[in-house]
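User: For my dataset I need records formatted as: sequence, then structure tokens, nothing else. Please produce one.
Assistant:
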Amino acid sequence: MEYQTYQIFKEKEFEDICQRCGNCCGVQEDPCMHLVKKTDDTYLCDIYDSRGGMQKTHSGKFFNCVSIREILHADWPGISSCAYRKKTDKSFPL
């Protein structure tokens, strides 16, 4: 498998772990304005492909949106239910 194809495969594999709980986007506190609740009680980001950088919460606070990989080992509300964290606790290579 060529390297670029492998990278695309690994990115999809990583993305597929997410259960769309919204915790990393502040759903339990002050969620990002771009976090949208779907009818099945999961969440999605309406600007996902361009989400990096400064964003705003519903209360008007600004924050720097970063990849889950950058905060995965940090402590934040809701991390105990994060599918990525559960997977990394089993030594999933990021």
